[in-house]
From TrEMBL, chains A, B:
Listed GO MF terms: DNA binding; DNA-binding transcription factor activity
Name assigned to this protein: GntR family transcriptional regulator
InterPro entries linked: GntR_C (IPR011711), TF_FadR/GntR_C (IPR008920), Tscrpt_reg_HTH_GntR (IPR000524), WH-like_DNA-bd_sf (IPR036388), WH_DNA-bd_sf (IPR036390)
Keywords, alphabetical: DNA-binding, Plasmid, Transcription, Transcription regulation
Coiled-coil residue windows: none
PANTHER family registered for this protein in UniProt: TRANSCRIPTIONAL REGULATOR, GNTR FAMILY, TRANSCRIPTIONAL REGULATORY PROTEIN
UniProt key word Transport: no
Length: 306, 306
DNA sequence: TATTGGCTTTTTAAATTCAAAAATGCAATT
DNA sequence: AATTGCATTTTTGAATTTAAAAAGCCAATA
């Protein structure tokens, strides 16, 4: 029962819609709507829907389309681990890990990479394209690729935080800064739910994602896209370093509180206060991290979420 | 007399070494040395050297290698216009221009692009990879590519300057900031030479390049790579907007002066003063730009250099 | 009238072959 | 001992073909 990679990914994304509660039991799934949402045509969407109805997540009614069948709770168990959008991510992570730990040389030919990871030209291309986007790989002038030195040390985290401590509070003071109630409400909803939910039970990846999302959505309100883009980029770099770390859930509660406080200040129009609060929030994450011992060999690492 | 693209590029780069004065008449050119410098093997270097000796720029002595033959001055006339490293740049610029002026849709298939610009799969790939790196293109989930909204308006310049006004002065106050005499001297040399030379005669591209270089080299001294990377990236974006503009040379003298002043302050260890000076310098470029009328159709644009 | 479901067309990936180009090894020369 | 000049090997690009996958179309249906 092989099916296309894209359909797989879409199936996973649709599953996410159900588990996240955006879709309830009985809701219809419109193919065109989903296709637009994911930026694809209806073909892979249809395929995904068919897959999911075979798995019993959805129900297909003749000539009427697909409907949510299974409850979110029942699903939460079964998925979440394998269901990762974008399979490539795995190979990308392998490459990133190998580079971060000096298991591959700084300059390699494509052939070596293809053999090492058993990839087609195209697959390798996708991965390298991503590494280029993230800024740690480039094509050599002749044959081969060059990997650029990436901050792999604990200091890199500090540097990222200092950078963020500069731009995130400043973003709120930009002349074009405008409150966006929709963003604020959405983030409040997400953060509140994280507090209500048993944080221990949520997958680490989701925690990290929500944390980054909060900051990225907020910085958008500066209406200066260069602030936003910069944050997105350091966050991507951070993720590269983080995926091997252990989430320190004990600090999460405090951090969600901070987030909600900042949202409150913003909503009351106390932007300058919010800016200070943001600075303190980031500074807190920074100072608490210094005593941590790092060993980049094979141990898991402590880290904070913001 | 076709020769490989790479060899062409290298020939151009070598020519640059001669015209820039790094190599004088009679100096030998070591193949391995050049190969290492450009990150390629000796083959394309040899080919380039042979090309140049056919053109009379170099002289080949039996079993002893290549030597500079022509003087820098004599060369300066003949080259500089066609001799652009990286041919691809042209196609990239065409694509960028077309996107900036809405002549291509936000979502296109590779085939459409290949036909429009008459490119091979690989050439198109290179160009798109570059656009991905610069952050304004991404592969769609299914077939095709999506171009992301790029700030194409005058406001974009202001936004970039505000971002730079934040990070560049702050970079000097980073805890790991260290003066690097070598960088300072190098930049002083470059800026002084621009002042001494008749600025009207220097190619616009070089002026822009030197201006960006000054700021990028200085921010490096923060020893926080994320500051540097961010600046490099907004500068790249800026260049995308600038290549259609007209360089306002009248302001150049003042800007070089500013640069030299900042270097003086840094050298005397007055870092905080330098930080302020940098802020004023950037702020000046910003405020002077507002009265400019923009028309993104086909007219040339005014702009400043920093 | 919007949407589905099947069908057709278009687009891209994969595999293969061939030629060009780059990398590399080594004897000869300075 | 370092470097050239040439020969050999390796890597990559280009072109082609085939198959898979996605996009787009349209009649049927709720």
């Amino acid at each position: 029962m092989r099916s296309s990679q894209l359909a797989q990914n879409i199936a996973n994304e649709i599953t996410l819609l159900v588990t996240s509660g955006e879709l309830a039991v009985g809701d219809p799934l419109r193919t065109q709507h989903l296709a637009d949402r994911f930026g694809v045509s209806r073909s892979p969407v249809r395929e995904a829907l068919q897959m999911l109805s075979e798995q019993g997540v959805l129900e297909q009614k003749e000539n009427r389309g697909f409907f949510v069948k299974e409850s979110a709770g029942a699903l939460a168990e079964t998925v979440s681990d394998e269901a990762r959008p974008f399979e490539v991510a795995n190979d990308y992570q392998r490459l990133a890990e190998d580079w971060l730990t000096d298991r591959i040389p700084a300059e390699v030919t494509e052939q070596v990479l293809r053999e090492r990871y058993d990839l087609t030209k195209m697959q390798l291309n996708d991965i390298l394209m991503r590494a280029v986007r993230e800024g740690w790989a480039e094509r050599k002038q002749g044959y081969g690729w060059r990997f650029l030195p990436v901050a792999k040390t604990p200091e890199a985290f500090e540097q990222i935080y200092r950078f963020r401590m500069l731009i995130e509070p400043a973003a709120m003071l930009e002349p074009d800064f405008r409150l966006d109630r929709k963003i604020i409400e959405e983030q409040r909803r997400i953060q509140s739910r994280m507090l209500e939910t048993d944080i221990e039970r949520l997958p680490a990846e989701r925690l990290l994602h929500n944390g980054a999302l909060f900051h990225e959505e907020l910085i958008k309100m500066s209406n200066n896209p260069f602030f936003h883009l910069s944050l997105v980029r350091v966050n991507r770099m951070r993720r590269l370093l983080e995926y091997r770390s252990r989430v320190d859930r004990s600090r999460l509660v405090r951090q969600c509180q901070d987030h909600l406080d900042i949202l409150d200040l913003l909503e009351r129009g106390e932007v300058i206060e919010a800016s200070y609060a943001m600075r303190r929030h980031l500074g807190g994450a920074l100072s608490k991290k210094s005593p941590i011992t790092w060993s980049w060999s094979h141990q898991m690492q402590e880290k904070t979420l913001e």
